[in-house]
Amino acid sequence: YHALAIFASVWVSTMTAGILAPLSGWLFVSGSFIFSGSLYLLAFTSIRLFGAITPLGGTLLLFGWLSLAIACWKIN
Fold it and tell me: What is the pTM of this model?
């Protein structure tokens, strides 16, 4: 779903001149990288610190959805 959201943020950014749509794309990319990457590192290394980083990625994904929703709302 987040890969589709990245495409949606690019599409919305072509319709609006604001910064929220490109910001949402970067939030989705960085959130997916941190969320998935920390879980992969936790699985392969068993270092528990990587599990503590995972919620940061999830928070970035939530902010990505929020900024995309606000950007879509501003189109109308």
Answer: 0.89
